[in-house]
Amino acid sequence: MKELFKREHLSMALNPDEVVARGAAYRAAMLSGAKDRKLANIEFNNVAPFALGIQLKGDKFSKIIPKNTPVPCKMKEEGYTTTRDNQDEVRIAIYEGDDPVASKNNLLAEFVLKDIPPAPAGKEPIDISMDLDDEGLLTVSAVVRSTGGSKDITIDTVGAGLTKEEIAQAKAR
């Protein structure tokens, strides 16, 4: 931390739980319409608490929205392809987390993109886009580039978060 912030001494006087509680109280006051000049100088920026992405062949996690990306946001990834000859559908599994192994992250949802034209493996491009709004709604779209065929899903990420045990395990890594 000293190297990151280029300081000889770092203050450890702040209690992280107290900081969160104060932030929540300030935010609640602002949302309720409280008029206080202390609140006028406070700005809240929502960010994605975890990376959001999809599972690739070999259980790899492909991050589409990186952790701490300001919300709302929309990101598009191009260049995904089929993995088998004449593959006519592909399963899209959406995860949140930071582990490079997809299955070690939290599975949010999955869907199947169908009607992919027959082609050799790796030759049929599929574009994936993710749109995360202020309310925590994540819309994931998959499009077969050659036909325009698409499928999408909307996920409420607020209710899909990690359990306390999963968070503790992630912090321990």
Radius of gyration: 20 Å
Beta-strand fraction estimate: 25-35%
CATH class category label of the largest domain = Mainly Beta
CATH architecture assignment name of the largest domain: Sandwich
CATH homology-level superfamily of the largest domain: Substrate Binding Domain Of DNAk, Chain A, domain 1
| Nearest-integer average pLDDT | 87
Count of helices? 4
> Ends: how far apart?
18 Å
State the major sheet.
4 strands, antiparallel
Q: Which range best describes the helical content: under 10%, 10-25%, 25-40%, 40-55%, 55-70% or over 70%?
A: 10-25%
Give structural notes.
There is one protein chain. The protein has 173 residues and is an alpha+beta fold. The protein has two domains: 2-40, no CATH class; 52-172, Sandwich (Substrate Binding Domain Of DNAk, Chain A, domain 1), CATH 2.60.34.10. 19% of the residues lie in helices and 34% in strands. The chain contains four helices and eight strands. It has helices spanning 2-5, 16-31, 37-40, 164-172; strands at 52-56, 60-65, 73-81, 90-96, 106-113, 125-132, 137-144, 150-156. The strands form two sheets. It has a four-stranded antiparallel sheet, with no helix packed on it. A hairpin with a 5-residue loop joins β7 (137-144) and β8 (150-156).
